[in-house]
C-alpha cells in the first residue's frame, strides 16, 4: 500500500516508510514462472535434447536455464498452458517416448510431439526447486480426464492411473498442490470458448469432484482481467470450492512513460477483484443463512486470494503470438516490469501467487541460443525483487510530481495516481529494509528526502544516467545490467532518470507490528 501526495515539478520529492508499519506478508509464490507449449518455450527452451554445445544434462534439460531459474529462486511454475491446454491430452505425454503420438496443436497452429510431458515437467521442477502448478483442459477435456490426471499425479492408492504412474517409473506421487480450472475460457481465441454461466456451473461441479478425490489441493478459478462481469459472475457462482481467482493482464505503451505506467492498471484490477471476492463471500454467507445451512468451517472462513498467473509487458506488434512471441525487451520494458513487481508488493495482502508469462523465450526475461542464454533487460528487476523483496510489505507515502500524459489503457489517467516515483518497501525476516523505487521520468533525476536510515546503504541501480530507454541485451552485447554501490545514508538521495533503484539498509533494532 502506497499513499501519494502530488507536488509541483519544482518541489523536492520525499518518500516515507517505517519498519513498524508492516501491512501484509509477501507470499514467496509472487515470483512464480510459467512454461507453455508455445514457440520455443519448451522445445529449445527448457528442453533441448539435440544441443551439441554441452548445455544439457542427461535428460535433455538446458542446464543454463535451470541455473537462471535457481538464481531467480522461482518457487512455482505453471504448465502446460495457456491457450495450449484447451486441446491438450495429458495421457499423450506420458509413457515411453517412442510410443507417444504427435497431435495437431490448435492454439498456435503447430504440431505437438509430446516428447515433453507430465513426468518430464515434474523432474524439471525438482531440478529447479519449484512447485508444479497444472492447468486443466476445460476446453476439449472432460472431468474424467481431469480426475485421471489428478490421480496420476497425487494418488497413493492401488488404482489405474496411480499404477500407470508407477509403471512409468515413479512410485511416489508428485503431490501437485496447485490446479487451475481451465485457462481464459472466456476468450474468442479459445477452442471451446464458453459463457460465464456455463463455465461457473462446470467449475463448481469439477471443483467438488476434484476435492473429493484429493481435498488437499488448491483450486484456481478462471477469471478474466479482474474488472469484468465474467470475474464477478464466476466468483459469485463458484465460491464454494475455489481457493484462488486467476486474472491475466499484459501491458505496454508505444512511448516510454505510457509503457512504464501501464502496469498501474493491474493495481486497479487487483483492488476491484478483491472487492468482488468479498462480494461473493457475502452472497455465499447470506444464502447459507437464508437456507439454514451456514458453513463455519475453517475453509470457508479463509478468504480466497488472487492468482495473477499471466502478467508481463507484451507488445503483440513487436512479438506476434503466432510467430513465437520472442520480444526483444529494452530498458523501458525493464522499468515497467519493476513497476509490475512494485504493484504486487504493495498489494501483497491480496496476492496468493503471480507467475510471469513466460519463463523462457516466449515474451521472456531469458532467451536461449545454441551457445547459451541471454538475460534480457527484464531479468534484472526480477532478480532484485526475488532476492530481496521478501518478508513483509511496508506502508509507504510518496510526495512527488505526477505523470499527466497518455496512458494505456486510456482510463488509467483518470483512475489511478501516477507518481513519477513508483515505490514499494519490504522488511525482510532478517531485519533489512528494502526500498524499491522506479523513477519513470525519461529526462529528470529526482533528489529525494528519505526516511531515517542506518548506513551504510546497499544500492542497486538498473538504467539511469548514461543509459537510453531503448537499450537492450542481445547475445554478446548485454548493455543493461545491475550497478552496485554503497551510500552512507546521509542527506538526500538522487534517483537517476529512467532508472530502477533498490536501497537496502540493516536495522539496528527491529520491531514489527501489522497494522
TrEMBL record:
Pathway: Glycan metabolism; L-arabinan degradation. It comes from the Eukaryota. It catalyses: Hydrolysis of terminal non-reducing alpha-L-arabinofuranoside residues in alpha-L-arabinosides. The lineage of its organism: Eukaryota, Fungi, Dikarya, Ascomycota, Pezizomycotina. Keywords: Carbohydrate metabolism, Glycosidase, Hydrolase. Its EC number is 3.2.1.55. GO terms for molecular function: alpha-L-arabinofuranosidase activity. One of its GO terms (biological process) is arabinan catabolic process. The keyword Calcium does not apply. Belongs to the glycosyl hydrolase 51 family. The keyword Hydrolase applies. InterPro entries: Alpha-L-AF_C, ASD1_cat, GH, Glyco_hydro_b. Alpha-L-arabinofuranosidase involved in the degradation of arabinoxylan, a major component of plant hemicellulose. Acts only on small linear 1,5-alpha-linked L-arabinofuranosyl oligosaccharides. Residues 309-499 form the Alpha-L-arabinofuranosidase C-terminal domain. This is non-reducing end alpha-L-arabinofuranosidase. Pfam families: Alpha-L-AF_C, ASD1_dom.
